[in-house]
Predict the structure.
Amino acid sequence: MIGWKTGAVVAGITIHLIVLLRAMLVEGREPQARAAWLLLLLALPGIGTALYVLFGEPWVSKRFRNRVAQASTQLAPFAPKFGLADGTIAPFENPFSTCAAVAGWSAAGGNEAAVAHNSDAAIDMIVADIEGATRAVHISFYIWLGDHNGTKVADAVCRAARRGVTCRIAADAIGSHAFIRSAHWAAMRDAGAHLCATLAVPFGLAFLAGHRLDLRNHRKITVIDGRITYCGSQNCADPAFLPKRRFAPWVDILIRYEGPVAHQADLIFAALWTAETGEDLRAATTVSVSPVHGGLTAIAVGTGPLSPRGAMTDIFAACLASARQRIVITTPYFAPDPPLLAAIVAAARRGVAVTIIFPRRNDSRIVGAISRAYYPVLAKAGVRIFEYRGGLLHAKTLVIDGELALVGSSNMDRRSLDLNFENNILFRSAELAAQVGAHQDRWLADAIEIERGGIAARSPARRLLDNSLTIVGALF
């Protein structure tokens, strides 16, 4: 008779071998990540097996996948359909077509937009639009704090709900953990708002029926009456960002859009809301949004763990490949997959002036180190690298040739590329791109350029650590 100890060892070895085989058989994984997982599983069998079960794949339960797919299918026919004038998106057909393939709808013309001057001004604009709402307010934030700005928005929602506006409010269950348990959340519920803590984490082994624990709803969406939307990097919080105050001020960007693209953003919100709550929002998203003559062309696109693998990378790469003269990028978290890194390097090598602005102080020491590990590759290709000194530069912006821009919630790291639910808007407008560019210029004015000599001066120990972390980044 086999003793329990021997049985436990046999079971452990069997599970380990099954996980090893799974790591080899899973489709769509890049070779670098597969090799990293195999190395970890062979070097640390017990710990590696546990880590793989928890974080090895961006798994989502079949039930949740089906709910999202059903909601998306139901809502897709309600996307606005407006024809674009000839030449509206030329020569940027590829970026817009790539976004359309992911989003399930085409770019729409006839939009108006403006960039908020700063984070506080952005919150004031949102509050003013909530005060003017007559039909519906849809809001989703990754982080919502009970500070000055967070309270202002919550109070505005309460007032809107009390006067009969349908308010649907979503906040990530982990990112907004404290706020969801606060009196502000309860006050919105008592006022009549419909609330949802998205991607809640079940207790114990119940998570196996849900989703990978660290898959988060990183989206920042505000839609007013289906005709106004906001998109950018800003959470519902003060720039002081008290949970991580030593990195303050957090420097963000938020753009207010009015027109058909707001309807698209509403559908992105509605798909996840329906999957989470079961509420059918088809009637609620049947909104007539008239395009403005001569307005800018834009497309809202949502990505996440249920998108085709590499969808966000494809969007970034398509934008980068369309550049002819200049690219300016800001991102706080830079841990690119090989195709994204290759797209940046290729643009610089073919003569495009590529500038990337990172924060000098990063709230994630690991991602900050991974970012710096890529500096030599970027610099060798001709990319100019800057580090912003005025706080944590949290804005995610990509401006191409002063004409095309992608602004939203997606960072250039593995979490945004493969794991988190994200939302972005791609637009073509020299005027609006100039407004985003003006913010980038201000950030550049308070940044230092990292010269090649400084990059090469890293000690061997530092290079070893940073380069090792790039391997860890591939695991997730």
Q: What stands out?
A: The chain has three domains: 4-55, 62-92+105-298, 311-475. The mean pLDDT is 89. DSSP finds 18 helices and 17 strands in the chain. The two ends are 41 Å apart (CA to CA).
